[in-house]
């Protein structure tokens, strides 16, 4: 059962005060100090690994059905969030125990209605719907239920029985429900979702009781600057596997002979019919097809279910604008066989063949240095919040390519699996970030959950060629006590899980105060010169950016990226001379940063620039946010501000210089035919 969170916090605090008092009485001040010091120790504990979680795909042996659509929905009383558990709402149709409304899945629930008490709701909400399972699924196969994401914590019931519990938004979870469903009959799925964030959740938050006109309000606060959308955010699937099935696939790749020969290393894990052990004498037959569907490599494994495919005249995976055919993907087909060569299961996965390498001055893909030019982003849009929206996702990738970006960071949480697949296809590099944002109060329980979030993220995204770096946090309070050992544990654990990609974090404290950067492979820093620092002063930007980036490099001797810079801008506000919040000011501020970046690019260790933000997004209500954060280059409905055209010209100019790409025909607007002025005198003052 879910605890009443705010009551739990109050009880815990009283216990802490009691223990503190007893410690002081029994041991005196010295004894208390020893007790306090012990409490600050954090240990590097083992994390339970994720299993399974392959993206649902149909094949000769698998069927997939979507449960997306309109579900029934009810919210709990904020002062009594566990009522539904106590009263067993999951045992019957939700509409029989509560007044319900229709709620689309996937979507955040906050902005669907016109009610502010739902938009700002703190605590639990409930979903349910009916579905049929065909009789044919009862015959020699398993049935699985998979959620792409529920924020923040989910309890899932099938026909009144608990099927799975999961804590951590933005990441998938699944459960086998073979023995919970009724075949050839109607079934009911019930989901309880809890959006409460406290100091030991990832991300962190606080819950307080605040008096209001008619009683007490339960208020959720958090320091991160985006709205805490909640609900069933991504698709829900039913799918089947054979009794003995492919449970996991891990893919790594390499290139040789001047990128003319490729290697695909695969590890397959199977699970089976008895005591979760696969039957003996298993092997996999593996083949690789190019875009034309032609088999270019194949082999049969031993019983260890792993091996390597060699591809002659390989087409490497290249980022956008680094090659005429970016994002080239092969299709890996895996056939699991058992005794007497019986075909047991089939699974297919797209594969990009590329290499990553890095040192103290550069980051390289396929042996070529990369200069990152991109964005921090958010999964955010009007009405649907953080809900998966394929139309919006497609628009976003069109805009990324229109503006000439080659990368983005999944700030500040893992993005949908569908967007990762889209990045693979389009050659967009991803700095993949876990949900840790504004992390502070570094304690053991938080560390365990933080590491778990990284484990789940890497398990989900390790096979994506677009993922080129792991980000373990955004703007953590790395000047605090325990920050050094805390992030040493997280960084080392990330490398242990995946040594093939570098580790970074977006740091906002100064290089003199930071305790975490020395444990990273790439230094990323966020700074808002001309906005939060010295607002309105365009003459206090360029030198400060150069100096800070240089200080980071001198202190740690590692590649440096500026991962955030920008200014809030109201669409359509024009002021001359440039003034804060105007489109002119945003344009000028970007230009001053461009000057700094061009100076820094003369040093090989400065490897990238990321604008904050791709598009405007919603935040919590504050007097400094007019309808949300307005730092977007695009508006919330994905239309360009004036600065988008300037940034487009810069990104393509960089692409031309660094990657020898071609300019789009519409990059520069026609101004005038100067041919009639050929005989006129000109001097240097004309330039």
Q: What class do helices, strands and sheet pairing give? A: alpha+beta
Report strand %.
25-35%
Number of separate helices: 11
Instruction: Describe the main β-sheet briefly.
Output: 8 strands, parallel, barrel
How far apart the termini lie comes to: 72 Å
Label the overall shape: globular
Contiguous runs where pLDDT drops below 50 for at least 5 residues? 1-39, 274-278
Strand order, sheet with most strands: 25-26-27-28-29-30-31-32
- What is the count of β-strands? 32
Structure description:
The chain is of the alpha+beta class. It has 11 helices and 32 strands. The longest helix is centred in the N-terminal third of the chain and has 35 residues, at 5-39. The chain is globular and about 80 Å long. The model is unreliable at 1-39 and 274-278 (pLDDT under 50).
What's the short story on this structure?
The chain is an alpha+beta fold and 687 residues long.
Helix-strand blueprint:
Layout: H1 5-39, E1 64-66, E2 69-75, H2 83-86, H3 94-97, E3 101-105, H4 116-119, E4 124-133, E5 141-147, E6 150-151, E7 153-158, E8 161-167, E9 173-176, E10 185-194, E11 206-212, E12 215-221, E13 231-232, E14 236-242, E15 245-256, E16 261-271, E17 283-289, E18 295-300, E19 306-312, E20 330-337, E21 343-351, E22 356-358, E23 363-365, E24 368-369, E25 372-376, H5 390-403, E26 407-409, H6 417-426, E27 429-433, H7 444-461, E28 467-474, H8 483-497, E29 503-507, E30 523-526, H9 542-556, E31 560-564, H10 583-600, E32 606-612, H11 642-659
Parallel strand pairs: 25-26, 25-32, 26-27, 27-28, 28-29, 29-30, 30-31, 31-32
Antiparallel strand pairs: 1-14, 2-3, 2-4, 4-10, 5-9, 5-14, 6-13, 7-8, 7-10, 11-12, 15-16, 16-19, 17-18, 17-20, 20-21, 22-23, 23-24
Helix pairs in contact: 5-6, 7-8, 9-10, 10-11
């Amino acid at each position: 059962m879910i605890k009443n969170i705010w009551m739990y916090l109050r009880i815990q605090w009283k216990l802490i005060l009691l223990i503190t008092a007893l410690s002081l009485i029994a041991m005196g001040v010295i004894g208390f100090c020893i007790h306090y010091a012990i409490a600050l120790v954090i240990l590097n504990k083992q994390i339970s690994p994720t299993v399974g979680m392959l993206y649902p795909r149909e094949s000769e042996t698998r069927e997939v059905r979507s449960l997306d659509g309109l579900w029934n929905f009810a919210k709990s009383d904020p002062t009594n969030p566990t009522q539904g558990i106590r009263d067993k709402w999951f045992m019957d149709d939700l509409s029989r125990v509560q007044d319900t409304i229709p709620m689309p899945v996937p979507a955040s629930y906050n902005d669907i209605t016109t009610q502010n008490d739902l938009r700002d709701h703190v605590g639990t909400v409930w979903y349910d719907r009916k579905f049929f399972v065909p009789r044919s699924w009862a015959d020699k196969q398993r049935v699985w239920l998979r959620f792409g994401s529920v924020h923040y914590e989910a309890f899932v019931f099938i026909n009144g029985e608990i099927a799975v519990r999961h804590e951590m938004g933005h990441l998938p979870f699944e459960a086998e429900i073979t023995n919970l469903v009724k075949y050839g009959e109607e079934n009911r799925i019930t989901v309880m979702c809890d959006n409460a964030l406290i100091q030991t959740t990832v991300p962190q938050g606080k819950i307080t009781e605040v008096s209001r006109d008619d009683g007490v309000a339960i208020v959720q606060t958090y320091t991160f600057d985006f709205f805490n959308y909640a609900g069933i955010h991504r698709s829900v699937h039913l799918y089947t596997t054979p009794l003995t099935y492919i449970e996991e696939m891990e893919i790594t790749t390499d290139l040789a002979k001047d990128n003319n020969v490729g290697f695909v290393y695969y590890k397959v894990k199977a699970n089976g019919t008895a005591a979760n052990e696969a039957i003996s004498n298993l092997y996999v037959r593996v083949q690789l097809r190019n875009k034309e569907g032609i088999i270019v490599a194949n082999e049969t494994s031993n019983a260890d279910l792993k091996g390597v495919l060699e591809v002659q005249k390989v087409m490497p995976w290249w980022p956008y604008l680094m090659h005429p055919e970016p994002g080239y993907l092969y299709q890996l087909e895996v056939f699991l066989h058992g005794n007497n060569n019986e075909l047991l299961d089939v699974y297919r996965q797209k594969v990009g063949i590329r290499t990553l390498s890095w040192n103290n001055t550069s980051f390289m893909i396929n042996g070529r240095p990369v200069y990152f030019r991109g964005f921090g982003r958010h999964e955010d849009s009007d009405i649907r919040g953080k809900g998966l929206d394929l139309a919006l996702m497609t628009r976003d990738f069109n805009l990324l390519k229109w503006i000439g970006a080659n990368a983005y960071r999944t700030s500040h949480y893992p993005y949908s699996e569908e967007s990762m697949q889209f990045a693979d296809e389009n050659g967009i590099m991803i700095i993949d970030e876990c949900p840790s944002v504004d992390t502070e109060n570094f304690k053991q329980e938080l560390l365990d959950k933080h590491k778990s979030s990284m484990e789940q993220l890497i398990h989900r995204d390790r096979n994506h060629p677009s993922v080129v770096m792991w980000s373990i946090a955004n703007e953590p309070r790395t000047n605090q006590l325990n920050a050094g050992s805390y992030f040493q544990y997280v960084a080392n654990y990330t490398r242990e899980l995946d040594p093939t990609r570098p580790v970074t974090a977006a740091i906002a404290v100064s290089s003199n105060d930071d305790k975490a950067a020395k444990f990273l492979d790439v230094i990323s820093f966020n700074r808002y010169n001309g906005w939060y620092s010295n607002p309105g002063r365009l003459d206090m930007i360029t030198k400060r950016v150069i100096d800070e980036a240089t200080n980071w490099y001198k202190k740690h001797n590692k590649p440096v990226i500026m991962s955030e810079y920008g200014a809030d801008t109201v669409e359509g506000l024009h002021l001359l001379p440039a003034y804060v919040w105007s489109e002119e000011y945003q344009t000028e501020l970007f230009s001053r940063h461009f000057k700094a970046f061009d100076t820094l690019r003369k040093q090989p260790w400065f490897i990238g620039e990321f604008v904050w933000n791709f598009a405007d997004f919603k935040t919590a209500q504050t007097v400094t946010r007019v309808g949300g954060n307005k730092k977007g280059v695009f508006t919330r409905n994905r239309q360009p501000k004036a600065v988008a055209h300037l940034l487009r010209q810069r990104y393509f100019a960089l692409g031309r210089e660094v990657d020898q790409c071609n300019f789009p025909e519409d990059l520069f607007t026609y101004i005038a035919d100067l041919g009639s002025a050929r005989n006129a005198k000109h001097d240097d003052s004309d330039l």
